[in-house]
Amino acid sequence: MMVGTDVAMYRFVEDETEREILTAADVRGFFVEPSIGESEIITAVGSSLRPERVPVLFEDVEMQVRDVRGREIGGYYIGRVEVTDLRDSVSVPGGTDLALSFFGFGSPYPYAGEIWQTWAQGPPAESGMWKNLPPEAHDSWLHVVQMAWFRTGHQAKRYGDTTTCDIAGADLADIAGFYCELGEAVNGPGGYFGSNLSALDDCLINSGARRESPFRLVWRDFETSRRAIGDEELDDVISVLRKYGIEIEYPPSG
Protein backbone atom coordinates (compact mmCIF):
# COMPACT_ATOMS: atom_id res chain seq x y z
CA MET A 1 0.00 0.00 0.00
CA MET A 2 1.05 3.61 -0.43
CA VAL A 3 2.09 5.37 2.75
CA GLY A 4 0.81 8.70 1.47
CA THR A 5 -0.98 10.18 -1.50
CA ASP A 6 2.22 10.88 -3.45
CA VAL A 7 4.81 8.96 -1.45
CA ALA A 8 5.77 5.35 -2.09
CA MET A 9 7.07 3.54 0.96
CA TYR A 10 10.12 2.00 -0.72
CA ARG A 11 12.67 3.84 -2.82
CA PHE A 12 15.52 2.10 -4.64
CA VAL A 13 18.58 4.26 -5.27
CA GLU A 14 22.19 3.92 -6.36
CA ASP A 15 23.97 3.93 -3.03
CA GLU A 16 26.83 6.23 -4.00
CA THR A 17 25.02 8.76 -6.17
CA GLU A 18 21.50 8.60 -4.63
CA ARG A 19 20.09 8.40 -8.17
CA GLU A 20 16.57 7.02 -7.96
CA ILE A 21 16.02 3.74 -9.80
CA LEU A 22 12.43 2.97 -8.85
CA THR A 23 9.86 3.32 -6.10
CA ALA A 24 7.31 0.81 -4.86
CA ALA A 25 4.27 0.88 -2.61
CA ASP A 26 5.22 -2.44 -1.06
CA VAL A 27 7.94 -5.08 -1.28
CA ARG A 28 6.79 -8.65 -0.80
CA GLY A 29 9.04 -11.65 -0.23
CA PHE A 30 11.97 -9.71 1.26
CA PHE A 31 11.16 -10.14 4.97
CA VAL A 32 11.44 -13.87 5.59
CA GLU A 33 11.63 -16.39 8.41
CA PRO A 34 15.28 -16.95 9.46
CA SER A 35 14.86 -20.69 8.86
CA ILE A 36 13.97 -20.14 5.20
CA GLY A 37 17.38 -18.77 4.33
CA GLU A 38 17.69 -17.06 0.98
CA SER A 39 14.90 -14.97 -0.53
CA GLU A 40 13.81 -15.96 -4.01
CA ILE A 41 11.48 -13.76 -6.06
CA ILE A 42 10.61 -10.39 -4.53
CA THR A 43 7.66 -8.38 -5.81
CA ALA A 44 7.85 -4.59 -5.98
CA VAL A 45 4.15 -3.65 -5.86
CA GLY A 46 2.98 -0.53 -7.66
CA SER A 47 6.44 0.32 -8.98
CA SER A 48 7.20 3.59 -10.75
CA LEU A 49 9.50 1.76 -13.20
CA ARG A 50 8.28 0.06 -16.37
CA PRO A 51 11.41 -1.11 -18.17
CA GLU A 52 11.33 -1.47 -21.92
CA ARG A 53 12.91 -4.89 -21.62
CA VAL A 54 13.61 -7.52 -19.02
CA PRO A 55 15.77 -8.77 -17.53
CA VAL A 56 17.59 -5.58 -16.56
CA LEU A 57 20.30 -5.42 -13.90
CA PHE A 58 21.13 -2.63 -11.46
CA GLU A 59 24.24 -2.48 -9.29
CA ASP A 60 25.10 -0.83 -5.94
CA VAL A 61 21.45 -0.56 -4.90
CA GLU A 62 20.05 0.53 -1.55
CA MET A 63 16.38 0.05 -0.73
CA GLN A 64 15.19 2.92 1.46
CA VAL A 65 12.09 2.94 3.65
CA ARG A 66 10.17 6.23 3.73
CA ASP A 67 7.42 7.69 5.88
CA VAL A 68 4.31 9.54 4.71
CA ARG A 69 6.29 12.77 4.38
CA GLY A 70 8.93 11.16 2.21
CA ARG A 71 11.58 11.10 4.93
CA GLU A 72 13.95 8.16 5.08
CA ILE A 73 13.37 6.07 8.20
CA GLY A 74 15.22 2.89 7.27
CA GLY A 75 17.30 1.27 4.59
CA TYR A 76 18.84 -1.96 3.34
CA TYR A 77 21.91 -2.20 1.15
CA ILE A 78 21.01 -4.83 -1.45
CA GLY A 79 23.85 -4.52 -3.98
CA ARG A 80 22.66 -6.23 -7.19
CA VAL A 81 18.99 -6.08 -8.20
CA GLU A 82 17.64 -7.68 -11.35
CA VAL A 83 14.18 -7.03 -12.78
CA THR A 84 13.10 -10.38 -14.18
CA ASP A 85 9.45 -9.75 -15.11
CA LEU A 86 6.68 -7.16 -14.97
CA ARG A 87 2.91 -6.86 -15.20
CA ASP A 88 0.19 -4.30 -14.59
CA SER A 89 -0.39 -3.90 -10.88
CA VAL A 90 -3.62 -5.32 -9.48
CA SER A 91 -3.15 -3.36 -6.23
CA VAL A 92 -2.07 0.09 -7.41
CA PRO A 93 -4.01 1.56 -10.37
CA GLY A 94 -1.63 2.70 -13.09
CA GLY A 95 1.32 1.03 -11.39
CA THR A 96 3.52 -1.89 -12.35
CA ASP A 97 4.34 -4.96 -10.30
CA LEU A 98 7.95 -6.02 -10.84
CA ALA A 99 9.44 -9.43 -10.15
CA LEU A 100 12.89 -8.79 -8.67
CA SER A 101 15.87 -10.91 -7.77
CA PHE A 102 18.05 -9.75 -4.89
CA PHE A 103 20.32 -12.74 -5.57
CA GLY A 104 19.31 -14.44 -2.34
CA PHE A 105 19.54 -11.43 -0.06
CA GLY A 106 16.63 -11.03 2.36
CA SER A 107 15.88 -9.71 5.83
CA PRO A 108 15.36 -12.38 8.53
CA TYR A 109 12.68 -10.34 10.31
CA PRO A 110 9.36 -11.68 9.00
CA TYR A 111 7.16 -9.09 10.74
CA ALA A 112 9.30 -6.08 9.81
CA GLY A 113 7.36 -5.25 6.65
CA GLU A 114 4.10 -4.88 8.59
CA ILE A 115 5.85 -2.93 11.34
CA TRP A 116 7.42 -0.53 8.83
CA GLN A 117 3.91 0.12 7.48
CA THR A 118 2.91 1.27 10.97
CA TRP A 119 6.03 3.34 11.54
CA ALA A 120 5.63 5.02 8.15
CA GLN A 121 2.55 6.75 9.54
CA GLY A 122 4.69 8.13 12.36
CA PRO A 123 6.76 6.74 15.25
CA PRO A 124 4.85 5.33 18.25
CA ALA A 125 3.02 8.01 20.21
CA GLU A 126 2.92 5.88 23.35
CA SER A 127 5.03 3.16 24.87
CA GLY A 128 4.14 -0.51 24.70
CA MET A 129 2.78 -0.85 21.16
CA TRP A 130 5.17 -3.75 20.63
CA LYS A 131 3.35 -5.66 23.40
CA ASN A 132 0.34 -6.04 21.10
CA LEU A 133 2.46 -8.24 18.82
CA PRO A 134 3.07 -11.96 19.37
CA PRO A 135 6.40 -12.78 21.07
CA GLU A 136 7.85 -14.09 17.82
CA ALA A 137 7.51 -10.56 16.38
CA HIS A 138 9.56 -8.84 19.08
CA ASP A 139 12.83 -9.36 17.19
CA SER A 140 11.27 -7.65 14.16
CA TRP A 141 10.02 -4.72 16.24
CA LEU A 142 13.44 -4.27 17.84
CA HIS A 143 15.05 -4.41 14.40
CA VAL A 144 12.78 -1.58 13.15
CA VAL A 145 13.37 0.44 16.33
CA GLN A 146 17.14 0.18 15.98
CA MET A 147 17.22 1.03 12.28
CA ALA A 148 14.77 3.92 12.56
CA TRP A 149 16.62 5.30 15.59
CA PHE A 150 19.89 5.75 13.75
CA ARG A 151 18.40 6.63 10.33
CA THR A 152 16.53 9.55 11.90
CA GLY A 153 19.68 11.05 13.39
CA HIS A 154 19.78 9.64 16.91
CA GLN A 155 22.85 8.27 18.63
CA ALA A 156 23.45 5.27 20.88
CA LYS A 157 22.85 7.15 24.10
CA ARG A 158 20.28 8.30 26.61
CA TYR A 159 18.24 11.42 25.83
CA GLY A 160 16.51 13.39 28.54
CA ASP A 161 17.19 13.55 32.26
CA THR A 162 14.81 11.02 33.81
CA THR A 163 16.42 9.66 36.96
CA THR A 164 14.21 6.59 37.37
CA CYS A 165 13.31 4.16 34.59
CA ASP A 166 10.66 1.48 35.11
CA ILE A 167 10.40 -1.79 33.24
CA ALA A 168 7.49 -4.22 33.55
CA GLY A 169 9.05 -7.63 33.96
CA ALA A 170 5.69 -9.39 33.67
CA ASP A 171 5.44 -8.24 30.03
CA LEU A 172 8.79 -9.67 28.94
CA ALA A 173 8.59 -12.95 27.06
CA ASP A 174 12.08 -12.90 25.54
CA ILE A 175 15.32 -10.94 25.47
CA ALA A 176 14.16 -8.87 22.48
CA GLY A 177 11.18 -7.78 24.55
CA PHE A 178 13.54 -6.70 27.32
CA TYR A 179 15.43 -4.40 24.96
CA CYS A 180 12.15 -3.02 23.57
CA GLU A 181 11.02 -2.27 27.13
CA LEU A 182 14.36 -0.83 28.22
CA GLY A 183 14.61 1.42 25.15
CA GLU A 184 11.21 2.95 25.86
CA ALA A 185 11.85 3.22 29.60
CA VAL A 186 15.02 5.21 28.93
CA ASN A 187 14.19 7.11 25.71
CA GLY A 188 10.40 7.17 25.46
CA PRO A 189 7.96 5.62 22.96
CA GLY A 190 9.83 3.85 20.15
CA GLY A 191 13.09 4.59 21.94
CA TYR A 192 16.30 2.59 21.61
CA PHE A 193 18.85 1.72 24.28
CA GLY A 194 20.64 -1.31 22.91
CA SER A 195 19.67 -4.51 21.16
CA ASN A 196 22.33 -6.84 22.57
CA LEU A 197 25.03 -6.74 25.24
CA SER A 198 27.57 -4.92 23.08
CA ALA A 199 25.02 -2.31 21.97
CA LEU A 200 23.85 -1.82 25.57
CA ASP A 201 27.47 -1.27 26.55
CA ASP A 202 27.81 1.43 23.85
CA CYS A 203 24.64 3.20 25.00
CA LEU A 204 25.83 3.27 28.61
CA ILE A 205 29.29 4.56 27.67
CA ASN A 206 27.79 7.33 25.53
CA SER A 207 25.39 8.25 28.32
CA GLY A 208 28.21 9.14 30.69
CA ALA A 209 28.02 5.99 32.78
CA ARG A 210 31.01 5.20 35.01
CA ARG A 211 31.45 8.92 35.71
CA GLU A 212 28.03 8.92 37.37
CA SER A 213 25.02 6.63 37.32
CA PRO A 214 22.73 8.02 34.59
CA PHE A 215 19.56 6.50 36.04
CA ARG A 216 18.09 4.05 38.51
CA LEU A 217 16.32 1.03 37.02
CA VAL A 218 13.16 -0.21 38.74
CA TRP A 219 12.60 -3.76 37.49
CA ARG A 220 9.09 -4.83 38.45
CA ASP A 221 8.14 -8.53 38.53
CA PHE A 222 11.75 -9.47 37.96
CA GLU A 223 11.28 -13.15 38.75
CA THR A 224 8.52 -13.42 36.16
CA SER A 225 10.85 -12.08 33.48
CA ARG A 226 13.65 -14.33 34.70
CA ARG A 227 11.48 -17.41 34.27
CA ALA A 228 10.43 -16.29 30.77
CA ILE A 229 13.84 -15.22 29.49
CA GLY A 230 16.25 -17.42 31.42
CA ASP A 231 18.99 -16.95 33.98
CA GLU A 232 21.98 -16.73 31.65
CA GLU A 233 20.72 -13.91 29.41
CA LEU A 234 19.40 -11.81 32.28
CA ASP A 235 22.52 -12.32 34.37
CA ASP A 236 24.61 -11.04 31.46
CA VAL A 237 22.39 -7.96 31.13
CA ILE A 238 22.56 -7.24 34.86
CA SER A 239 26.33 -7.62 34.80
CA VAL A 240 26.65 -4.94 32.09
CA LEU A 241 24.27 -2.57 33.91
CA ARG A 242 26.11 -2.95 37.20
CA LYS A 243 29.47 -2.49 35.49
CA TYR A 244 28.35 1.05 34.72
CA GLY A 245 26.98 1.75 38.17
CA ILE A 246 23.29 1.38 37.34
CA GLU A 247 21.34 0.85 40.54
CA ILE A 248 18.67 -1.82 40.05
CA GLU A 249 15.66 -2.00 42.35
CA TYR A 250 13.46 -5.09 42.51
CA PRO A 251 10.17 -4.08 44.19
CA PRO A 252 8.12 -6.97 45.57
CA SER A 253 5.25 -8.22 43.42
CA GLY A 254 1.66 -7.58 44.39
Automatic annotation (TrEMBL):
Xref: Gene3D superfamilies: Barstar-like
Alphabetical list of InterPro entries matching this protein: Barstar (IPR000468), Barstar-like_sf (IPR035905)
UniProt cross-references to SUPFAM superfamilies, sorted A to Z: Barstar-related
Leader sequence residues: none
Barstar (barnase inhibitor) domain boundaries: 164-244
Any one Pfam family match given in the protein's UniProt record, by short name: Barstar
Similarity comment: Belongs to the barstar family.
Designated name of the protein: Barstar family protein
Organism this protein belongs to: Streptomyces milbemycinicus
